Design the sequence.
């Protein structure tokens, strides 16, 4: 027989036999029931509470009161306080500088002598006026003599008043040879040396008070409503309405806090930043144990605003498009819920309505959500 016929026939028979054996010995498949996969989602419980709407800001510490130390008399500097150096500390009433008072002592002595002379002349003129008045009543002195005596008495009285004023002026100038500290504070800068001749009106130092410091804080226009102040408030804030302020500064690895209050709002909005600037005032205790808040330091500030009742704080991940959240009902099914957003913070949101106290809110990111879909809630 022809090989071209035999070989294909044999291959066909072998293939049919193999197919038969596979069909006879096929594995038995046991059907399993279909099981729906329920996605697990993270949820939090909505808890309503009262909240203070705080505002975060930052600024630079500035002195509340800063003054130029200016002598009111001229002279040579004969003594300088050790505190009158850059950064020196002083108390109210401390002597910071003395000017040579020799010339002013001389002026006081001259004033005292002039006052004694004017007093003597005034007494003599008064006595002469009394004498001539008596003689005039007795017809022993003319009216002209009486008028001259009256005029002389008035001139001597004017000279006495002028001498008294000159002596008082000389005394004030003598007291001004000592420059006294106007308040408790620190020296910011000084420009005077021992033996230097200073003139009246010349600035010799810049000092600032340390009882209070101020921080100028930028506040965006949309955050003003969080303060709970009347919209027309500008300038000084009434004491009963002043929001508390906490200022924080880092010293190495230590964070220190100071408490103060917002005392005023500036009158206009900054054209470049579109910010309103508020000024916080902080009282500093001048003792060795209280932390120092240096002027010029950059600090963070937290302004505590108005109090709102029955608001719900949720993680920001709970917020969906169009001010919606996903609520999980008692049957573990998802539902979209429209909410009223009171405030959007960095990590949280504050909801004023739309979610009820005790409800479960989904915070898991989900790409596809169907209204009423079944989920497996897992509490965060």
Sequence:
């Amino acid at each position: 027989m022809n090989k071209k016929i035999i070989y294909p026939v044999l291959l066909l028979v072998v293939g049919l036999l193999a197919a038969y054996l596979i069909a006879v010995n096929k594995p038995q498949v046991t059907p399993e029931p279909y099981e729906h996969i329920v996605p697990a989602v993270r949820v939090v419980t909505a808890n309503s509470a009262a909240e203070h709407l705080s505002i975060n800001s930052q600024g630079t510490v500035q002195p509340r009161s800063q003054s130029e130390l200016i002598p009111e008399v001229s002279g040579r500097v004969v003594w300088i306080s050790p505190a009158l150096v850059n950064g020196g500390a002083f108390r109210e009433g401390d002597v910071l500088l003395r000017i040579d008072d020799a010339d002013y002592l001389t002026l006081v002595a001259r004033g005292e002598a002039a006052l004694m002379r004017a007093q003597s002349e005034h007494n003599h003129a008064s006595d002469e006026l009394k004498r001539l008045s008596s003689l005039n009543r007795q017809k022993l002195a003319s009216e002209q003599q009486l008028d001259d005596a009256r005029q002389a008495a008035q001139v001597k009285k004017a000279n006495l008043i002028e001498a008294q004023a000159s002596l008082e002026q000389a005394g004030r100038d003598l007291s001004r040879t000592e420059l006294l500290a106007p308040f408790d504070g620190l020296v910011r800068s000084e420009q005077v040396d021992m033996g230097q001749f200073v003139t009246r009106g010349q600035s010799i130092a810049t000092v600032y008070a340390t009882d209070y410091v101020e921080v100028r804080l930028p506040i965006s226009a949309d955050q003003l409503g969080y303060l709970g102040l009347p919209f027309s408030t500008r300038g000084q804030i009434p004491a009963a309405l002043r929001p508390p302020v906490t200022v924080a500064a880092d010293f190495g690895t230590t964070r220190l806090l100071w408490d103060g209050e917002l005392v005023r709002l500036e009158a206009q909005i900054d054209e470049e930043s579109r910010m309103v600037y508020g000024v916080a005032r902080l009282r500093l205790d001048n003792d060795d144990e209280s932390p120092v808040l240096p002027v010029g330091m950059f600090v963070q500030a937290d302004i505590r605003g108005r109090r709102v009742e029955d608001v719900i704080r949720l993680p920001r991940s709970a917020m969906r498009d169009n001010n919606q959240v996903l609520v999980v009902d008692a049957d573990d099914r998802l539902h979209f819920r429209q909410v009223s957003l009171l405030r959007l913070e960095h990590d949280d949101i504050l909801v004023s309505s739309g979610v009820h106290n005790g409800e479960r809110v989904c915070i898991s990111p989900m790409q596809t959500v169907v209204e009423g879909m079944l989920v497996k809630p897992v509490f965060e």
Remarks:
- The chain has three helices and 22 strands.
- The CA atoms of residues 52 and 255 lie 23 Å apart.
- Residues 55-64+208-308 form a domain with the Elongation Factor Tu (Ef-tu); domain 3 fold (CATH 2.40.30.170).
